[in-house]
Fold:
Amino acid sequence: MKKIIKYVIIDILRNKIVLAYTVFLLLISITIFNLEDNSAKGLLSLLNIILIIVPLVSMLFSAIYVYNSSEFLELLVSQPLKRRTIWLSLFFGLSASMAFAFFIGAGIPILLYEATETGFMMLGTGLLLSVIFVAIAMLAAVMARDKAKGIGVVILLWLYFSIIFDGLILFVLFQFADYPLEKIMVGAVAFNPIDLSRILILLKMDVSALMGYTGAIFKDFFGAQTGLIISFTVLITWVVIPAWLSLRKFNHKDL
Amino acid sequence: MKKIIYIAVLVLFAHNLSAKTIRIGKMQAAKTIQQGLLLAADGDTVLVEPGHYHEKNIVINKFIFFIGINHPVLDGDHTYEIISIKANGVLVDGFKVIHSGISSIEDYAGIKIYSCRDVVIRNNILEDTFFGIYTQYGTNCTIEKNTLVSFSKEEQQSGNGIHCWKADSMRIIANNITGHRDGIYFEFVTNSIIWRNISEKNMRYGLHFMFSNNDAYISNVFKNNGAGVAVMFSNHVKMIHNYFEENWGDGAYGLLLKEISDSYIETNHFVKNTAGIFMEGASRIQVEKNVFEANGWALKIQASCMDVTVVHNNFKGNTFDVGTNGSLVLNSFNNNYWDKYEGYDLNRDKLGDIPYRPVSLYAMIIEQNPPAMILFRSLMTSLLDKTEKILPSLTPENLKDEHPLMKPLPL
Structure:
């Protein structure tokens, strides 16, 4: 398994896209922190990158990588190796390189310029988001045999998680404005890892505003020790469930 | 006893002679304060030596200087009001006043001034008192350099730190107030000054004004109080160079202004409050040269306000700059620095060329639908905000800063 992971990582490095992504993140983060006169504004810009670019790149790259290595996968399957090992190695290789790219590209500037609680929360959620969207992309890739369809699905999923889901929530909030929705909203957020990460970061960043009426409910839940543990458990579930589903699918897939 | 009466009579008749000093302590003739006070006449100094005195209610009804050496402890045994001042010109200096009674019918206080003038209360430590220093019908009194600490857990079990009711020309200077219901409470108090006090961690308001006109509070710190500072139903109040910090929660405001008029808010710092200033029914207020930093809402101006002028302030790192609840705007904003301003300055006059709209669409949405806060800073809401900036529809058309500053003011 180690050997395959190593091979996958070397292959990804050779491919240079991930390197370019790392450099891109690094450049953007350093520019942001140097340009803005107060680091709070820098963090805000970085928040958008983490919530938009990280999922998009993680998903697209992983999906394309899985499709492009289909021949390699076939070769590996013909060897005396468990399919489980092959698939998990691919998953670990991909998520390790995406997470590492994020850590170098955004994590190091965060640690250098903004080593606060907000910074650490951004780093943690960014790393988790990288891995979550690798898992989701792999699930999409294993479900759709056709490459164009698979990548299309990935892009749609990204749109769903970053815009459509929020639109639906806003719609529900206004349609049912007369009902107490705060607790339901806290539950609903668990269905979107991007939203969950955003709120975890917001609680560190905009704490004064969030201490208002509804905010107090969010704060009570997400800010408390148990809420924090639950939130991170949910985020990890977002890694485990897609990865497990894709593994099950891959085990029975006719290559 | 006979001797004491004799002396007292003598003293009474000799009051126009030079004042004397009476010492109270274990080794002195007067062992208790009550004894000592009987001996004293107008103009005398009563010195109390260190010790722990259980003296029930100490009533000072003569013009004396009542001074503690090294903070002797006056204990009210959770039953009595400790010092009651009923004469003009009394000085109370250097005591440690603890454990006053608690009552829901009477306002027991550590030190209470009853209808007199020119009283000075300074350098005292008050701990675990119901009300701390209470003035009713006081005139020209000074309350200075006292430390007031209360440990109660409920509002009903706690009184105000410095409480002034129907007073005039009061000076409240450099006191430290913690853990009371309201740190400083003013009701029907006029021509008074509150200067350099620190009021923090009080249960309700750090400072509470009701029906108090022509007062000023300057260079105070109000930090981490249950609901910040409230100035209500007053006019001609000057608020200068105060610090309002970390007042968090629903209904907590750095500064709450309700039905107030003709007032100045200048060179204050509002930092990390849920709402920096909340105004309701305020009119003719000048908000100038203040710093608003890292608040949830820097300013919440309800549509019921008019002629509020907001000029030359710095707005930095606030989640929302201005919130309002309607489209009617009778207030003016000009020449403020907003860190969210994205305009340009082509003619280099240090003023932005396009107006800044401090009310964002999302601030309006949250005003109508608070749970929508959950979507704040998501991609979709940023898009909504951007479209609103180009084509304002929900945000009040007239609420804008015509000439925002490009660089923050050095405040």
